[in-house]
Give the backbone structure.
Amino acid sequence: MPRKISRKGLVRKLDKFFSLYIRQRNAIDGYVKCVTCNTLKHWKEVDAGHFCSRRHYSTRWNTLNVFEQCKKCNGFGGGENYIMGKYIDKTYGVGTADEMITLSRQIQKFSNTDLEEMIEEYKNKVNNL
């Protein structure tokens, strides 16, 4: 019988597959542009940068909230939220960044089953890239 993964382990596993998906989804020949500074880097050298903080589960795994970002912008630049917000509105329509902020303020509880289903979803998406 396989060992049951803890909730913390499920979150960590989902973070891993979600990050792999985000960093690879727009890759061309393995390279992506940082959404905030346009630096071209290999997908393994960038982060999955969050517009609204990862602490908000309601937007933590939302593909409209997380984008490929170089480590300079995501880490040292504090995420460059203003620039990322402008990118989100330009890409998905004016007001989308505000919608992400509103959504991030809502409480979202995921069951372990929800987390397991999202793990499978993003594992499949990564395998199909």
